[in-house]
Amino acid sequence: MRISRLLIILTIIVFVLTPLSCTQQPALIPTQPSGSNLDPKPEKKYADLIVGYAQLGAESEWRVANTISVKETANQLGVELRFLDAQQKQENQISAIRKFIIQKVDVIGISPIVETGWDEVFQEAENAGIPIILVDRRAAVPENLYVTYLGSDFLEEGRKAARVMAKLVNGQANIVELEGTIGSAPANDRYTGFREIIRSYPGMRIIDSQSGDFTRARGKEVMADFLLKYGKKITAVYAHNDDMALGAIQAIEEYGLKPGVDIKIVSVDAARGAFEAMIAGKLNATIECNPLLGPQFFELALKVVNGQSVPKWVPSIEGIFFPEDASTILPTRKY
Ligand code: AHR
């Protein structure tokens, strides 16, 4: 009797509790994900961005245009820009990056003055979670230390200059070369690209090559030295930028020769000064290198901050200009 009562009580307990446990169980499984990594981050807008920019200096017409493009675009978009001019010194660019890291900017833009010597400071930015965008010039660092490079194909610019020169001189020339800043990406690549093409022209010889540091003053000094050393033997000048070509033009005139006629000149940048020199018949061609990188730079910065993927290289689109078109094109040039 006792046993059967006990059985009845147990059956009732099981009957009552079973549906309860079934209905309670789902309540233990969260219906909404609550983990913070699954919550979408609010998208940043231009007005939310704080960008550090380590410019290398103000050595050329090109660089001045590049700086204006970056500053004006930041202003138009409402981006907070922290801009530092390193005055041609790598150590100043390095300390600028360190300042930006302390200030916890969202993105760092830099035009590295030379290619090497960046690993340590770029790693510091990486450790702080701040992405680096290379603008205009590459740095020789592992690919994980920068998100993208926005700028020109300097090798191709060197090749274009050589092809144009070969036509101008009919495959026969004694060339002197005015190189850019020693160790910089454009100087290294314009040097190499030019030689790749010249190699196929046995009548074209590079008789000397020196750095004019991308400035007009040094371009003039180095050209004056070349003229003292080689005189009328020089029949062509290849300048890694327009400013040095303009300096060389002055030196050639002071020496008593006609630039563009006695000595053919090809340079790189396509800045307004080069167009004026072509109109005056003193420069034979300029290969474009576009400094107006501000809009693309900030577009990339916003994408990167919002976690969107960007290509490892965003190349600029560039042309070649000759004296016959110079007066039509000059009024349209923005730099
Ligand atoms: O890095 C681009 C080069 O730097 C330009 O050709 C030159 O003018 C500048 O100084």
Q: Which descriptors would you attach to this protein?
A:
12 strands; elongated; binds alpha-L-arabinofuranose; 11 helices; 45% helix
Radius of gyration: 31 Å
SSE order, as H and E? Answer: HEHEHEHEEHEHEHEHEHEHEEH
Distance between the termini: 107 Å
Assembly state: single chain
Explain how this protein is built.
With 335 residues, the protein is of the alpha/beta class. Helices cover 45% and strands 17% of the residues. It is built from eleven helices and twelve strands. It has helices at 2-28, 61-77, 90-102, 119-127, 154-168, 185-198, 216-230, 242-255, 272-279, 294-305, 323-329, and strands at residues 50-55, 80-85, 107-110, 132-135, 148-151, 173-179, 204-211, 236-239, 264-269, 285-288, 313-315, 320-321. Strand 9 (264-269), helix 9 (272-279) and strand 10 (285-288) form a beta-alpha-beta unit. Helix 2 packs across helix 10. The radius of gyration is 31 Å and the shape is elongated. The model is unreliable at 10-36 (pLDDT under 50). The chain binds alpha-L-arabinofuranose (AHR). Residues 59-60, 62-63, 136-137, 186, 214, 241, 243, 268-269, 289 line the site of alpha-L-arabinofuranose (AHR).
